[in-house]
Specification:
about 25% strand, single chain, 3 helices, two-stranded antiparallel sheet, about 80 residues, alpha+beta
Length: about 80
Amino acid sequence: MTKPLKLIKIGNSTGVILPKEVLARLRVELGDELFLTEGPNGVTLTAADPDFVEAMTAAEEIMREDRDILAVLAR
């Protein structure tokens, strides 16, 4: 999807207007946070914190690998 976005002045900063279709796809609304990540193919705008996603992926991997140890610790 390619959508032109309009930049507007907000105080001493610059903001961008996101169309309601984009907000619906991101599942966000007024007051929510978005995360801008720079990568080799440009920038990505997501509603999920990439650092949190990475940490949870690592935690799930550890829980899978050490299931027996975690079961003993849970007693």
